[in-house]
Amino acid sequence: MKNIETKWLQDFLILAELQNFSHAATVRNVTQPAFSRRIKSLEAELGLILIDRSKSPIELTLCGKQFKTTAQSIIHQIDEEVSRLAGSSFHGRHTVRLSSAHSVAISLLPKLHSCLFNPKLNTSLSVDANEVDDAVELLIDGKCDFLFSFYEDRLQVAPYRSIYLGRSFLYCVSAVDESGNTLYDLENNDDVPCLNYTPESYMGRALHRANAKLTPNTVCSSSMTDFIKALVLQGKGISWLPDYAIKEELASGQLKILTEREPVPLDLYVYRYYSKLHSSCEVMWNELSKVSPIKELNG
């Protein structure tokens, strides 16, 4: 059993948040030398380097990012148990932090309500929706419990765990005219205006890997799926859009798939660190592991 003091865990969490030894020491009401010794004591007891002191501001090492999740869970569980043993009525809810790509948060998370909104768990959700790469960084930095996003090579190995949620597809689509015919015809026009994803965005990289191209006539580029979808619906051009984001528009006939282009697959996952999380997070993870791929998400 490691001889770790809870104040060291609290010191570490404050340092991780402020990224500055002097500021963190002030918040913890100790001198900076004493604060630094406490952080070193924690690292020594764990046998791990948690802080990269060569960076300015300081950064957590990979071990530090992983341990941050553990430290948060330990502190919260101790607080809950002390309240229970003291006989006080504990009405607080544990907040489960979710990070997600914008389009995934809007279109897919509500479909996982039975897993995420379990009435038996005294939890609340905090959902941070960002660009895909920003959402991934929140998990890597230990700033969320779960990440809902697309396939990422670096998250498929330790210290991360993942659950496969299903496969979606990017379809080439066009708006329609009053007669229900597509506004643009790729078969007879090589210069159709198109709306592309920026090369550095996740969708842009996925399309590049698949060598999926539209036409040379790019009239607008963006990293935001919802923005591109709005422009396609306005008839500004054709584009690739994920099936889960256009299900209703395809069903109502507002959009049609241009079959001249093969769909591009996108695999969806939920990721986390291997570190043990709060008990309510673990229950939620177990429920997510029971989700039936594809049907649950795209059905």
UniProtKB/TrEMBL annotation:
Belongs to the LysR transcriptional regulatory family. CDD domains: PBP2_LTTR_substrate. Gene3D superfamilies: 3.40.190.290, Winged helix-like DNA-binding domain superfamily/Winged helix DNA-binding domain. It comes from Photobacterium indicum. This is LysR family transcriptional regulator. Keywords: DNA-binding, Transcription, Transcription regulation. Coiled coil: none annotated. Residues 4-61 form the HTH lysR-type domain. PROSITE patterns: HTH_LYSR (PS50931). GO terms for molecular function: DNA-binding transcription factor activity; transcription cis-regulatory region binding.
